[in-house]
Specification:
The longest helix is centred in the C-terminal third of the chain and has 22 residues, at 135-156. The chain has helices at residues 24-28, 35-42, 47-62, 116-119, 135-156; strands spanning 3-10, 13-19, 70-72, 78-80, 85-91, 94-100, 105-111, 167-169, 178-185, 188-199, 202-209. By secondary structure, it is α+β, with helices and mostly antiparallel strands.
Length: 211
């Protein structure tokens, strides 16, 4: 069982990350999907996506949930039937969930790739990163910023938000492993705490809304 990492964020909030190494057949054992999720699963053309989908159900089991406890609203945002907050992510062979009984939460895992240099201008003022030592450092920092904005987008759950114009992530150093952020959208301002970690060429970022 490749449960890769668990993180206790606070007394109400925790994270579990899975490294997907098992076969689809192995991952399907003991997992029972709701009708809607079975339709989604059957429609996935990529075996990797199906394996990731199943691994997330195994992560739910760690918290004593089954597939039918996970519901989605019209915008596709996941919720748990008991009212707890949840956010889900997957990137290549890593998946993760964050669950909280008290805070709105978001999580994102991204592979660190040079590709992000080509799209940076779409989600952040790129000039802010010119002072970094080398391209690898720029890629790392941009991946954290992108992950933070993805996490915040998952929390906010409204279409129309611009990563570039409506979500601001405060500057940080790698050693901080945390920063803050805000969303300003249609006159509404909300504040968030951001944390991040790096492993095996991937970046995981998670966000909690400040009360």
């Amino acid at each position: 069982m490749p449960l890769y990492k668990t993180i206790t964020v606070n007394k109400d909030t925790s994270i579990a990350i899975w490294k997907v190494e098992e076969s689809e057949e192995y991952l399907s054992k003991g997992i029972f999907l709701s009708q809607n999720c079975q339709l989604r699963y059957d429609g996935m053309k990529s075996e990797m996506h199906r394996r990731a989908f199943l691994s997330i159900r195994h992560l739910l089991v760690l918290y004593n949930y089954v597939d039918k406890d996970l519901i989605y609203n019209e915008a596709g945002k996941p919720h748990l039937k008991d009212g707890k907050y949840i956010s889900i992510t997957h990137s290549h062979n890593f998946t993760g969930i964050i669950i909280s009984s008290s805070d709105e939460v978001g999580i994102d895992i991204e592979m660190q790739r040079d590709k992000i240099l080509r799209i940076a201008h779409k989600f952040t003022p790129f000039e802010e990163y010119r002072t970094l030592a080398n391209t690898a450092a720029i890629v790392r920092k941009l991946t954290i910023v992108w992950g933070a904005k993805e996490s915040l987008y998952k929390i906010y759950g409204q279409q129309g938000i611009s990563f570039l114009h409506h979500i601001n992530v405060s500057d940080f150093s790698f050693s901080d492993e945390s920063t803050s952020a805000e969303i300003l959208y249609k006159g509404d301002r909300s504040q968030y705490n951001i944390n991040f970690l790096e492993f095996e060429g991937f970046t995981c970022v998670y966000a909690l809304r400040e009360v």
